[in-house]
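ok so heres the complex, two chains, lmk if somethin looks off
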Amino acid sequence: MAASDAHSGASIRHAFGNVLGFFILLLIGVLAFSIRLFSVIKYESVIHEFDPYFNYRVTQFLTKNGIYDFWNWFDDRTWYPLGRVIGGTVYPGLTLTAGTLWWMLNSLNIPLSVETVCVFTAPIFSAFASWATYLLTKEVKGTGAGLTAAVLLAMVNFSSSFVPSYISRSVAGSYDNEAVAIFALIFTFYLYIKTLNTGSLFYATLNSIAYFYMVCSWGGYTFIINLIPMHVLLCIVTGRYSSRLYIAYAPLVVLGTLLASLVPVVGFNAVMTSEHFASFLVFIIIHVVALVYYIKGILSPKMFKVALALVVSAGLAVCCAMVAVLIALVASSPTKGWSGRSLSLLDPTYASKYIPIIASVSEHQPPTWPSYFMDINVLAFLVPAGIIACFSPLSDASSFVVLYIVTSVYFSGVMVRLMLVLAPAACILSGIALSQAFDVFTRSIKLQLPSVSGQSNVDAGEASSGNVVPNDPVKTDKNEDTSKERTSKKSKKKEKEHVEKPVSKSQIKKRLLVLPLETSIIAIILLVLLGAFYVVHSVWAAAEAYSAPSIVLTSHSHDGLHVFDDFREAYAWLSHNTEIDDKVASWWDYGYQTTAMANRTVIVDNNTWNNTHIATVGTAMSSPEKAAWEIFHSLDVKYVLVVFGGLVGYPSDDINKFLWMVRIGGGVFPHIKEPDYLRDGQYRIDSMATPTMLNCLMYKLSYYRFVETDGKAFDRVRRTEIGKKYFKLTHFEEVFTTHHWMVRIYKLKPPKNRIRGKIKKSKSVQNKLENKLEKKRTKKEPLLV
Amino acid sequence: MKMRSIPFLLFLFPILFTFPFLPSPVLSASDLILAKVDRRVSLLGFRSLSLFFTSHCHSFKLHCQGFRFSFQFQNQPGSDLRIRIDLTSQIVRITTSLKVENTGSDVVSEILLSFPENQANHLAYLKATLSEGKGKVKPSAGAGLPVEVVHPKDLPPALTIYSVSLPKGLGKGDSLTLVVLAVLTHTLQPFPEKINQGDIQLLLFQESAQYLSPYAVKVQSLTVKLPDARIESYTKLENAKLQGSELKYGPYENLPPFSYLPIVIHFENNQPFAVAKELVREIEISHWGNVQITEHYDIIHAGAQSKGEFSRLDYQTRPYLRGASAFRRLVARLPPRAHSVYYRDEIGNISTSSLWGDSKKTELEIEPRYPMFGGWKTAFTIGYGLPLRDYLFGSEGKRFLNITFGAPINQLVIDTLFIKVVLPEGSKDISVSAPFPVKQWQETKLSHLDIGGRPVVVLEKNNVVPEHNEHFQVYYKFNSLSMLREPLMLISGFFFLFIACIVYTHADISISKSSASYLAKLQWDEVQATVQQVHSIISRCLTAHDKLETSLYDLSRSGDIQACKATRKSVDSSLKELSKELKLPLAFLQSSPQAAQILPKVEELVAKERELQDKLLAKHTTVVDCYEKKLGGREIENRIAPQQQKINALKQEIDDLMDVIDEI
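and the predicted structre for the whole thing:
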């Protein structure tokens, strides 16, 4: 009886831990999903920003035309007149994921629109990502089942579902590659560690497939294919080579590279660009090492030494030769085989020096310290603690996490955008740190609280009988317990000590880790406060900072909420009131939105693949009206769209971006010179501005008739009165301006006849005369009697 | 000047050309006319109609609220006919009230109404009602008389003839008052056709000042109600009068059949010319208590086209001057208790709308994304839910939906209206009853969790005006039990999912039952079970130890040696039993190769436990002995102190070992 009781107690305990863990996972998933719905609740279920609109449009095409048409899609509505091969230049992971989701839902007769599916893809995958983070952490710290695991799980998931920098990229509607890529990244790492821990080929294969999914999803896959070789190299150098390491790495390189080259956008890049060379090099090294280990196994130590000397000298020579050839090959290409974005990772100043188009994107700038605090908040302080926890003891897996955090901190320091890669690493480490800390404190309390009660108990006994029965204080309160209670109590205690167990098994060590009671209570309270502060900050960030869809803006004034929906107003106008084949020119930021929302052909868009074309538009915007008209006319442009924030104070408008247009345009067409637009190195649009500036198209289109709004032409963004107030447009005419003037659309006037001037004047006179005459006539007599 | 008048002339050509072909009766003698009319009637092939017009008892009267015009059929003194044309909106509403008197001898059961081609093409709605009292009846009130198109052979195709069937024949000398409402769309032509942003919108309307009818008219008059704005010009006939915004023609007396007097009015009208090129109304019935209505509008400003620049500045500073012809908002009157209203287009929600409601109606004011100038288009969707009980009724075992036909937006002309009534899955015997002829067919629609799809009744009608907002009914049979189908599907789906999970966790799905790894796994399971067993036995041993300790504690308090000894005995026996029990699993573990790794730990545990047991028993004996010898507390303590230390150390070690084993 008692035996079965104890047995069932243990299994119930296990089941309880599992069920609790399952519910924590479920709730965390729900939490991760729902914290990202602020944008839907505060605004609406709509696709955000710029790139997501392109992804949405591609998904629409995919769901409408099927996968084969998608691979062969040549988009003639963008980069006019060049067009763009979408199927071969896009990372298809996100699109295929959302398309599959949509297809599945529709085949179950759940008629959700493509847009809805796209909007909610990111939150769904962030739930997956937080689960994957948990799995990775579990593999790293190698805990068993039960409550301790549940605590760890809660901590990791808690931090990963809340981390603001990930929220910023995965709120509902932020339908971008990163939304699924972060999940793919973590899951690939998890499978790598899992393979490393188990040495199972099954997981190695899964790992390659996960890597394939990552390659499909995001260009950031190069992070994986460089980080894992780095870790393998680290393991080899530190003498941690094992067959598990080989199984974890070799299949990934072979299968992964094969699979990666199946993705059209990667193709032969998978074996031809420098980003992938590290993996091949390590692939060779690991084979050499494997061979060495093998030979070491079959030879006697003495023979082995001889052989080693022989092989090392020969091998070094061969290696040197190969490296030399490799370097020569790589060096012969102009960018040294690295793509621009990757180069700017290695040399943060590269982009701003050589590629203005990359530097012009704000998310490619290095982050500031406040943005670190904004994006990872308290995690930044917990990470070092997590790193220390990873070193006790250092395993293959924990060394991977340390390497991961170190590299991602470096990369996030280069580009704001890569803060996203840092987020999961920070979550894992701070989750480990938190759960360790909680563990130590709760155990300290647990060990000391009973001692207080037990002591008083003993004192009482002493007073009554004068007899002392020396008892272990912990046991004292257990004496009355039945066998079942005993087991369950013990189990609870055991669970609490679980994590600490691998670290220290002996009693002495345990005692050493116990902290004073008061200290631990205060520390726990502080930790809870820290967590609460983190939650408050993250919820605030999710609700206020990162939920704005950026196509709808709101402002709170004394008379309530004011909505600025100008972008969609303009796009809707274009879509309904222009011809289907009209070409719209705008700065490239608005290209994706114009094609997706207005369904009009654009000249350039956010896929900045052709610098010359963008430079042409930049040149047109920086040229005087007539020259600009000629450029646009040669591109068959009918409408020009500019974004102007001067009336309502919308700062990211075209005037603020204008210097980039000048720079990019001047990079290709030397007659555009940046100094012409600057007065003493300062960018200004007031009366001190240069004549070139005041006569360029962008200035004119932005400020056309602006002076008539308030009489002074005060620009609320630049906080100054503009330089040139009264001017007329000769080659363009205003056809639409939105409610808050944020988007202004101009039409190119048709080319005029050669003879102008006199005839035009006389015509207008004639018209006037006619009008007058007509009026007279109508007054005199009705037209028809 | 010439240039400008040409469009007018062109415009009138069809009308002018129409009339020479009309048979023109000779108007000199009354009996001749009579014969003429008589002949025409018979030629027209009206089987039962024989309207005889006699000079003394034949009259048509027309009443219109407050406005009186007299049309006179030539040979019917005393009869009168009043026409009122409302041009205040884009929809032309012609209300004709005719007093009809049968002057012939036969009973008349049909009355003919004629429309020239240009009107007939744009005729959206025609309703004839009998006015019972003294006139002044709103044309919309009451049930209309059946009206149908007839194609008389001897009339030129330029005239479209509608025949109104009277409820009972009109006997000789009887008279009745008939109110006819004709609603025309797209008849107001903007002139000039293209205007600038600042221009006002001018419209042309052309009509006949005299009532075009196959019958002779005695007295007739015409009033045209114009909007309160400038009137550019109008055809100035002798008896034309302009009073404020009302233009009056007539009275004309003793008009022969088919008399026609063209007039043209050129006036300003800045009313919204909102025309829905296509409107798809989807009405989805859910028997869970909701009627969901989704309306997809495709709207165009059908007035004068806008040309040249659109300046937001001008529009914002002087909206009524520099954007007079544009409209910026539309008002939809939704049914009361409408809920979950939304207003969006394909790129998202449109925030410029407001909603208010009371018990009688819900009013939704929507602004398109941009002001609608002439020729500008937009498209949007309105959706709302309605309580089912207001619209679904049952009769004779059938259910029927009773809901309005047209769009809720005021003064909207709809070129093509599709109504899709989505009935619940499993509806049968579907039939539609509409107050006017519509094209209809059926489709199926797959929606939430459907298997066979929901039957959809599609109704199509062209040229719909607000007058069409009448109720129509869709009858169908539906079994209430079918409602439970989808919940049951969901429940069973989850049920099977859980069953599958249970089966998966309990079933052994290894492919190879004889492989080494599988066998090893089985053995390992067995070893684990055995280790668990050992674990539980040891923990029971520990419980027994606890009992011993308790008894000692009790002893120290109460000094009851006998009870302590009794406990000792029972614990001894239970410990013996336990050590027996322990033998079997230990033997198994020793024999199993899989357990080789764990065995040392287990054996260590067992040994430690035995040691602890011995020490405890020894301690117990010592303490009891001491009590029996009545030794002091301090002495006892001294004696057992070395033992106690060892016991504590052992306990800790055992605890650790237990944890280790538990983890296996």
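quick notes: The longest strand of chain B covers residues 274-286. thats all i got rn
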